[in-house]
Amino acid sequence: MTLYFGSDHAGRELKGILLSHAKEKGISVVDLGTDADLSVDYPDYAQKVGDAVVGAPGSYGVLVCGTGIGMSIAANKIHGIRAALLYNEETARLAHQHNNANIVVFGGREVPPKEATSWLDAFLSSTFEGGRHGRRIEKIARIEQEHR
How many domains does the chain have? Predict the structure, then answer.
């Protein structure tokens, strides 16, 4: 499994913490930026990570901006992406179990690092349950197709 990471300037610090945490757990990571404190536009990094995840089946993405909202909106515009903005450990698990999310999003100004790493662990240790949730994911995919 590979995790692709991206952030804007407001999420850079938390992205670095999450990336290091994943690396320490032996997970393959790719940092797609930003690496600077200069103001950058979050849609650019959402697109980089989204494209990487779509291009590498079985991989996941981690995005961080100030609130996580902008990254979520931008990433979910990419065909095949299901980005989930996390706000606690339960949503991290359910994003994977029920929504088969392939990108998780954090608010760098909203989530303490210790909580964020715990949420990432919860997401990665859970699996998609399928069943009725699979039917719902198929419906989301149909909506996506209809609005291409």
Answer: 1
